[in-house]
Every structure is written in C-alpha cells, then in structure tokens.
Amino acid sequence: MSGTRTGQPAAPAEADPRRWWGLVVIALAQLMVVLDATIVNIALPSAQRDLGMSDSNRQWVITAYTLAFGGLLLLGGRVADLVGRKRTFVIGLIGFAAASAIGGAATTPAMLFGARALQGVFAAVLAPSALSLLATTFTEPKERGKAFGIYGTLAGSGAAVGFVVGGVLTEYLNWRWCLYVNVPIAVAAVIGAFVLLHDRPGHTGARLDVPGVFLGCGGLVSLVYGFSEAQPRGWTDPLVLALFAAGVVLLAVFVWWQTRAPSPLLPLHVIRDRNRAGCFLTMMLAVIGMFGMFLFMTYYLQTILGYSPVRTGLAFLPMTVMIVIGSTQISARLLRRVGPRMLMVPGMLLASGGMVILTQMTVDSAYATEILPALILMGLGMGLTFMPVFSTATAGVAPRDSGVTSATVNTSQQVGGSIGTALLNTIATSTSASYIASHLTDPSQRESVVREGIVHGYTVAIWLAAGVMLLAGLIAGLMVTAKAPEHGTPADRPVPEPVA
Q1: Which parts pass through the membrane (predicted)?
Q2: Exposed, middle or buried by CB within 10 Å (0-12, 13-18, 19+), for 63?
C-alpha cells in the first residue's frame, strides 16, 4: 500500500484540507445551472399569463437558455483554461445571478427571453469551470470516484429537483421566484469560492481561437435552433432544413480548422481518444432519452392524471433518490474495481427497461404500479451511467485542456437535451394528431379520443427513447475500454502539463 501512496501525489490532501468544502461550492453552482434547465417549465403557464406571451413565443423561455448554453459551452471551456478556472467560475456566478434578477423582474416577454439567453451565456462560462475545478482538485482515484459520484448525482437529478422546486415556488409564492432563487445561491457560492477554492493562474500567453469560436458555436447554435424550430414549423420547412445544412457545414469546417489553428478551441486529441469519444456519445444519447421522458411525464401527470405542479414534482422524487443511490453508493464504490463500461452498459439497459415499462401507460394508469417502477429503473440506470461518464471523460487530461474537455461533456449533455426535446416532441405530436384523426368518428367521444391520442403519441416517442438508450449502452460497451484505476491504467492520473 505504501508504494501506491508514493505513486499518488499526497500533497493535495495536505495542502488543501478543505477540498471537500470546496466540492460543496462547486456542487452548489452546478446544481443551480442544471436546475435552471427545468425549474421554469412548471412556472411557464403562470409567466405566460402574467406577461401576455403568445403560444408560439412561449417556447423561447426554454429555448433561449438551451441555445445560449449549448452553443457557447466550448468557448466557456477555453476561456476557463485561458483566464483561470477560479476567476471564470466567480465571473460566471455573478453574471448568472444578475441575469436571474433581470428575468425575475421582467415586465415584457422580450425582457424575459433576453434574461434567459443571458443566463445561458453565463452558464456556459460557469459549468465547464466548475467541472474542471473538480477534475484538478480530486486526482486520487478513491477520492475522485466519491467526488464525481456527488457531481454526477447533481447532473442527473438536478432536472427532477427543478420540477419540485419550480412547483413549490410557483404554487406557494410566484413564478418570478423560480428566477430570483438563483441570487442567494450564487451569492453563497461566490463567498465559498473566494474562501475555499484554489487555482493556478490562466495561460496569459495563449490566444483565443476566434475563427474556431464562430465556426463551432455557430454550428451548434444552428443545429439546436433547427431542432427547436422543427416542432412548430415541421421537419421539411425551408428554414429548418437551412439551419440543419448550415450547422453541418459550419461544424465540418470547424473540424477542418481545428487541425490548422495555432491555438485550437477544441484540440482534436481530446475527442480523438476512444474512451472520451465514447463517453461524449453515451452522454448525448442518454440525455436525449431522459429529457424526452421528463417532457412527456410532466404533461402526462398534469394534463392526463390531473396532478398539481407540486404533486408532479414530487412524483419525480423516487427517480432522484435512485440517481443518488446509483451514483454515490454503487458507481462511486465500484468504479475503483471495475472498468467504467461495466457500469455504463448495465445502467443504459436498466434505463431503457424503465422506458419500455412507460410505453404501456394509458389514460388511467396507476402511479404506484405502472409509473413508479419505470422511474426507479430510470433513476438507477442514470445514476450508474452519469458518474463514470464524467469521471472517465475528464481523466488524464493535461491541465491546460481540462476546461475545454469539461465543456465538451456539458455540450454533449445540452445538445442531447435540445435534440431529445425537439425530436421526441415532434414524433409525439404528429403521432397523436394522426391517431385522433383516424379514431374520431363520434364527435361526442372527442374528449376521450383526444386524451387517448395524446398518450398514444407519448408511448410511440418513448419507444424511440428506449431504443436510443439501448444504442447508448452499445456505444459504451464498444468504445469505452478504460480499465479500473487501481488496475494500473494511467488514465485516471493527471497528465503533467508541458513546461513550455
């Protein structure tokens, strides 16, 4: 054991005894960012009535955030590497709090849309700096597993917690508090960051890859915007097709430019690594299925079963608990002994199984016997998957690339969420419409047929989500070949930074 101890740097444990309190600060910031992807969902009907939004424009409360977040994450990751992770972390927190305050005080729809976009911009700065601070603070495999288990729990369960918090704040206070609540959280995290977090200065001599910023961010924004417009406009709409074509072209040129840029925005060796590429793909596919499930189950519980916002949020709690157990009690303990794919593959199989159970739901399904088992399987599967994805994707990266690597993990998560919401929602809506059109023969039965049609649309889309999760498990099994850290792989030890 002593040999192992000397092989691992002991200094961090002695030099930074408050690193676990530092993890609390990082986790608080990450929870705030993940919460904001869903906390506004349940408040949306109230905000729409209050500000007089049209049905066609209300989606921008959600889309403005995911567009800015997903499109600018790579830039945020590189800024963290250049400016310094702690400094970027604090700037992100302050900006996010200010944008939240503006959104909470919004008097027009445009003001709220702008504030949500601004939140996304600062979230894109905050999220990668938080993950890279975590990756460089915890380097010893046992501690790393525990820290990433906590982080993975927040990343996976934050969306469900957002539904609960959003429901409580909307029902008992006001929809504006779904935005105002970020201000005290951010203030606490800023104070904690100054007291507890440590970081080396940024690389002041390095340059920002400006063409890479425009190509990469422009391509991602085009794709995310295309998917967001596909649902209201249709997949064959000229604008949608143009956005997809522009996104593909811009991203292709971006990849070409990264091989020639003097200071590339995304060094291709980061994604050329088989394990990291497998983790990025697994994360994106897993989140496609998960976000689709959140969307359908929220509407199903409220509009079909008649749940209140608070009751809807509480219905997701068992899944949140299982994500916590899967991440901290199973994945964090086993990752030191087994390779990451031995957790990711079973995790995706369990999550896919939960989805298959949900395909059997009807207009009068019982929560305890037909919905709850599916949510438990989903939560356990996601808990088993998220933690090894985050840990493996950020392991063994040179410190100067830790920010951009962390950003790529988050980008795959946000882009997956945007694609999943748009793709599955379009399938559900079109399937429901065709079902209602073919079954509505007696006008007196309209209400029951419409309800059956809506649920039929959900179940068809959930079948696709189950297939996507199976594909995620297949990719994890074939691409993620890293071994457990205690079995001698260098992948979980930090790569020393080049002196030059």
Answers
A1: 20-40, 60-77, 89-111, 117-136, 148-168, 174-196, 208-227, 239-257, 278-301, 313-335, 342-359, 371-390, 460-480
A2: buried
DSSP letters spanning 30-78: HHHHHHTTTHHHHHHHHHHHHHT--TTTTTHHHHHHHHHHHHHHHHHHH
Q: What span, in angstroms and rounded, lies between the C-alpha atoms of 128 and 122? A: 11
Residue type for position 292: G
What confidence category does residue 408 fall into, taking pLDDT thresholds of 50, 70 and 90?
confident
- Give residue limits of the domains in the chain: 17-199+265-492, 209-264
Average pLDDT over residues 343-366: 92
The H or E element that residue 21 is part of is helix 19-35
Contacts of 72 (CB under 8 A, 6+ apart): 120, 121, 124, 125, 217
Contact by Cβ (8 Å): 84, 31? no
User: Structurally, what CATH architecture does the domain formed by 17-199+265-492 represent?
Assistant: Up-down Bundle (1.20)
Lowest mean pLDDT among 54-63, 225-234, 255-264: 54-63
Token digits for 46?
Answer: 């109230």
How far apart CA 42 and CA 204 sit, in angstroms, is 43
Q: What is the mean pLDDT of the chain?
A: 80
* 406 Cβ contact list (under 8 Å, min separation 6): 77, 80, 127, 128, 129, 130, 131, 132, 135, 394
CA distance 149 to 209: 33
Q: Which two tokens stand for residue 485?
A: 């850290």
Query: Which residues make Cβ contacts (< 8 Å) with residue 381, sequence separation at least 6?
Result: 326, 346, 347, 348, 349, 350, 351, 352, 353, 354, 469
Alpha-carbon gap, residue 151 to 391, rounded angstroms: 10
What separation in angstroms does the CA of 403 have from each of 21, 289, 316, 334? 21, 26, 32, 26
Rg (CA), the chain: 22
| Calpha distance 132→405 (Å, rounded) | 8
For 360, which DSSP code?
T
Of 106-115, 252-261, 267-276, give the lowest mean pLDDT range: 267-276
∠ CA 81-488-480, rounded to 5°: 65
H helices within 267-331, ranges in order?
268-272, 274-299, 309-315, 317-324
First to last CA, the chain: 34
